[in-house]
Amino acid sequence: MSDDRPGKGWVSVREMAHLWDCTENYVRRELLPFAGADDRQTVGQRLWLRGRAILDAWSDRRRPGRRGEAPQAGPGPNGDEVLFAGSDSPQLERYRAARADLAEMEVLERQGQLIPTTQVETCLASIRQLWRQHGDVVQRQFGQDAARLHNETLAEIDRVIRERFDGRDGDADETEPGAA
Predict the structure, then answer these.
(1) pTM for this predicted structure
(2) Helices (H) and strands (E) in the chain, counts
(3) Which band of pLDDT confidence, cut at 50, 70 and 90, is reported for residue 64?
(4) Are 154 and 128 in contact (CB under 8 A)?
(5) Are residues 26 and 103 in the same domain?
């Protein structure tokens, strides 16, 4: 199993949606326009984003009086003056929380404690395939009743996996980040 993540600091659309507590469609519609050409990369069929760069661009363009202006470095480390400003707007709080989540994810990834979903999905697909192959053997050796039980178990496994990995997909929930 190999992860197709382009490198440190890159997040999938699904991970970005999780960080922002929104749908993947919201990320594509509202946040992706903030991604520059160097901040997005497609590997295989998966779109990867530089989460921090997109958050920075989003923040720079949403601050009053800064529209269309180039970002300027401020007193904070790495030019993060927005993190040290006194404003308490909901957007700023969401930005701060997302930046903290991204930093935490980067640390966990470096420590080897964060496993990319692509690796988990690949592993689960292999397990599902082995289970299906095992079903043929069960049917030959133990009959149709055992095979039916085996297939019902496989269907339940697939349902649980779909719920876990596809739970945030779809158009049904188009809420803004942080909305309940």
Answers:
(1) 0.39
(2) 7, 3
(3) low
(4) yes
(5) yes
Please report which confidence band the pLDDT of residue 143 belongs to, taking 50, 70 and 90 as the band edges. very high
Six token digits for residue 156: 């339940």
More confident residue, 53 or 78: 53
Interior CA angle at 27 toward 18 and 32, to 5°?
Answer: 135
Q: Which residues lie closer than 8 Å to 106 by C-beta, 6 or more apart?
A: 8, 9
157 and 100 co-located in one domain: no
Range of the structural domain that residue 59 is part of: 10-114
**Same domain assignment for residues 89 and 162:** no
Distance of CA 114 to CAs 11, 15, 64, 105, 139, Å? 12, 12, 36, 7, 39
Query: What does the mean pLDDT of the chain come to?
Result: 75
CA atoms of 79 and 16, how far apart (whole Å): 22
Task: Specify whether 51 is located in the same domain as 36.
Answer: yes
